[in-house]
Amino acid sequence: MLTLYFAPGASSMAPHIALHEIGVPFEARPISFARKENRTPDYLALNPEGKVPTLVIDGRPLSEAAGILFHLARRFPDAGLLPEGDLEAEAQVISWMSFIAATIHPARRRGLDHARAIYALVDQRLGARTWAVDTYSIADIHLLRLYWRFFNSLRPAPGAFPNLDAHYQRMTARPCRRPSRSRLRSATSCPRRLNRSPTDLCYKVMIPGGDRRRSLKESL
Predict the structure, then answer these.
(1) Which is more confidently placed, 136 or 214?
(2) Most buried pick, 34, 145, 170, 181, via CB within 10 A?
(3) What burial letters (b/e) apply to 145-170, b meaning 16+ CB within 10 Å?
(4) Strands 26-30 and 54-57
């Protein structure tokens, strides 16, 4: 049994997308930072840092989004979230995951100018490729979460990051599979697209390159 502990706006968005991509049964348990549910003895026993996400795998906790994504990709190879039979391609995915965690994720802490410079570097690294590596992978899911948060909060000028904008559009157009039994505390249906969601945790996202707003209900 898989159980995902999540919180709105946190890195848990990426593992949740992966779980829906895989279509595997799981239980989603929301954690409220406002009510300090992440500091309860029960939760700290799972994750001593009090962070999300935490994925509990048959009673064993696994933390950090990158580790969870890698576990899911390797455990469910039929989902195609990690290149198969290509050591270099798999290493490129790990390279992207490390780059996202070490360089992109903390960029905003050093100020807006630094964050914009980092995303310009990300845009250059991504280039005109459809996906981060030759095929769709967990690196794309991880990248989506960071760019979604960056764009939603900083509103870069249209066309400032054309490659990331195009990647974002491709990601939000992807369908996902329906888990056979995903038990959520709110609604339980699987989103048909990544910009829809099974929960009532709603976020407004400005679509890059346009003036339209669409609702991103993030079950994380």
Answers:
(1) 136
(2) 145
(3) bbbbbbbeeeebeeebbeebbbbbee
(4) unpaired
Task: Check whether 2 has a pLDDT greater than 90.
Answer: yes
Selected residue with higher pLDDT from 49 and 198: 49
Round to whole Å and give the CA distance between 150 and 147: 5
C-alpha R_g of the chain: 17
Region for residue 25 given its phi and psi (left: phi exceeds 0; alpha: psi -120 to 50; beta: otherwise): beta
Tell me: domain 2-217, CATH 3.40.30.10, correct?
yes
214 sits in which H/E element: strand 213-217
pTM score above 0.85: no
| Phi, psi angle pair for 109, to nearest 5° | -65, -20
- Cα distances (Å, whole numbers) of residue 36 to 15, 41, 42, 61, 103: 22, 11, 12, 19, 28
Tens of pLDDT along 151-205?
877 788 889 999 999 999 999 888 765 444 443 333 223 333 333 333 322 223 2
